[in-house]
Amino acid sequence: MMTEHRTPPIPPLIPLLIGMIAISFAPILVRFSDADVSVQGMYRMLFTVLLMLPFGRKQLRTIGSISRKDWLLLVLAGIFLALHFFLWMASLDYTSIASSTIILALEPVFVMVGAYFLFKDRIGRVALLGLFVALVGTCFVSSGDLVLSDTAFTGDLLSFFGTLAVVVNMLIAKRILTRVSSYLYSLIVFAVSAILFTVYNIASGISVTTYPAKEWLVFLLLAIVPTVFGHLIFNWLLQYLKTTTISMSVLAEPVGASILGMFIFGEFINGFQLAGGVLVIVGLLLYLRSEQKSA
User: Fold this and answer.
1) Average model confidence (pLDDT) for the chain?
2) Domain membership flag for residue 1
3) How confident is the model at residue 291, as a pLDDT?
4) Span of the secretion signal (predicted)?
């Protein structure tokens, strides 16, 4: 589960659980906002960068030592992260949270294949069984809110390509984090994404200032909850864990989002979905336990 010669300073399960809970808030917050997804993405990235800056003065001094090759990889990672946020958040305008999230659940499968060819990461039979069980559980959880229509198909396609984009982003991160600190990686990648969103908004003539207080609160929460306590933690964990292990965390999102939807929007969870949530948790535990034993 851990990369060679690296041991995390705290048990990895603790930050992994925090990240899983944090990303579950993302679809809820996106649905709360009436702003264009590109504006949401811009402020999500911008506010995250501003929140990070005061905590990395020492590391910022080493930014000049980053090679040109690594700068190229950092920019590419930022481009694919921006694509992921843009496409996935846009998908929520066309399809249900469940339909979008169930496609996003394919992320660990794509990451597993990519990590095998790029890093020779292998998965044991028990871990593979855990992945399969969690995927089946995700299908159960999302089944109660699946949407079938021409509009939903567009949303599903956006979610699919958004998933591919985040897979590329994670594989780049795994490679570059052997040479660049997780803090600098996250800061630069988030900054690149913020710049791309800004350029897109200006070029498209989308207003980035005329929003009520509610929207600014959502923008800030998107930065703090699913990004700082979600993506930032996952980027840090990539120094110690396999990419597939980190990507498995996305399977907790439909469970968390369904629970939050029940309390926030009063959405009923049926027995089929509840069973799916149990399967997701069992699958995640199987996977993590297997990977921990093989570490």
Assistant:
1) 82
2) no
3) 67
4) none
Other C-beta atoms closer than 10 Å to the C-beta of 163 total: 24
Domain-embedded: residue 42: yes
Sign (positive or negative) of CA dihedral 206, 76, 94, 273: negative
Phi and psi dihedrals of 241, rounded to 5? -115, 165
Amino acid present at 163: T
The pair of three-digit structure tokens given for residue 60, joined into one six-digit string: 């910022």
Q: What pTM did the predictor assign?
A: 0.81
To 5 degrees, how large is the angle CA 192–CA 197–CA 198? 95
Decide if pLDDT at 220 tops 60: yes
Report the pLDDT value the prediction gives residue 2, as an integer from 0 to 100. Answer: 38
Sign of CA dihedral 90, 221, 105, 199: positive
Question: Is 287 inside any structural domain?
Answer: yes
Q: What are the residues whose beta carbons fall under 8 Å from the beta carbon of 210, sequence distance 6 or more?
A: none
Name the residue with tokens 């992994």. 16
> Is there a domain that residue 128 lies in?
yes
Both tokens of residue 150? 């021409």
* DSSP for 108-130, written as a single string: HHHHHHHHHHHH-----HHHHHH
Beta-bridge partner residues of 2? 241
* Helix then strand then coil, % of the chain, to nearest 5: 80, 0, 20
What are the structure tokens assigned to 138, written together?
A: 């995700």
The two structure tokens encoding residue 160: 């699919």
What does the pLDDT look like over 4-49, one tens digit per residue? 446 778 888 899 889 988 988 888 888 889 999 999 999 999 999 9
The residue range of the domain holding 96 is 13-294
